[in-house]
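Write out the bound-state structure for uracil.
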Amino acid sequence: MTIGHGKFGPALEQEGARAATLPDLREQASGCHRCDLYKAATQLVFGEGAQGASVVLVGEQPGDREDIAGRPFVGPAGLLLNECLHEAGVDRSRCYVTNAVKHFKFQQRGKRRLHAKPNADEIQRCAWWLAAELDLIHPRLVVALGGTALYTLFGRSVSVTKARGQILQVPTGPPVLVTVHPSYLLRTQKRPDAEMVRHQFVTDLHQIVQFCTEA
Ligand code: URA
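---
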């Protein structure tokens, strides 16, 4: 799959580092120095799930808990994602779950490590791995959880607010269902419309079931 600005597809071919299986790809990625994020992170947090998964969920980057566990979406945002997937009728264990960026980027504040947004260069460099994951999995549907995932998949900024709930066609890859990132629900849970925000997220996720049943 060509991802982002189109340069990642050729890059995959040029460097000849294609793996035949996800465990091989993960092994290759564990030595990734494509950007500097590996230096401060504890470890690579690669995608998780079966190569035969029909649905790939793409988040932004691992958080503090994921960095320590080495697994995607196991912290607070992941628990909320699990709950909402369950409410939407989606079995997470049948999906492949990954991130646009595979190392935790943070700012150290005392003992705390605060999430820092990956920049365009870090996202573009890491898109190489997402493209390789998608090439091996060939999912029927990709779910972009928030703006960073969407930026990686389209190679340009696409408004999550405008596109959420839609399934966008991608010329060189599987269609992309757009929704918010689960951490948005965490950030808005004290707002009066928190229930509605959560309901909308579950409704977006339910489209996975509808799409996979119809397709
Ligand atoms: N947020 C993400 O985008 N990914 C994770 O794995 C955890 C939190």
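---
The radius of gyration is 16 Å.
The chain has one domain: 11-214.
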